[in-house]
Amino acid sequence: MKVDTKAFGEIEVDERQRVVIPQGLYGFEDYKDFVLIDAEQQPFFWLQSLKDREIAFVLINPFLFRPDYEVNISNEELSEIEINSPEKAVIFAIVTIPQDGNPMTANLQGPVVVNKENMTGMQAILPDVKWKTRHDILDELSKMSK
To answer: Buried-most residue among 5, 54, 64, 93 (CB within 10 A)?
Structure first.
């Protein structure tokens, strides 16, 4: 299918890249249909709205820079997207890339969880105060290499 994207203009994507987020993302509840696209720069992805080309989120696998990341989401919440085992879940963090030169950060408090079998997703809010909405990705990576 053809998708008009914020980052790449109009591109062809496989229907299997479509992700439905029934509740939407926090602050973007009206946007439920997305496609997941590999970014040109790994390890990032784009979550592009199918409703509005201007609504797109950069995502990253949070375990790449925080191997200790713990996603404690209730089974009840996960059942909403038919996840009943960890193997079905793919976890992403939404990335913020400021234009003013401030550090690139990832939201570890509100991960996006996708059921890789049925491609439905949700955004969870983790109660653990250890996880913030702005974790400096490069700073976290530099701590790992020490």
So the answer is: 93
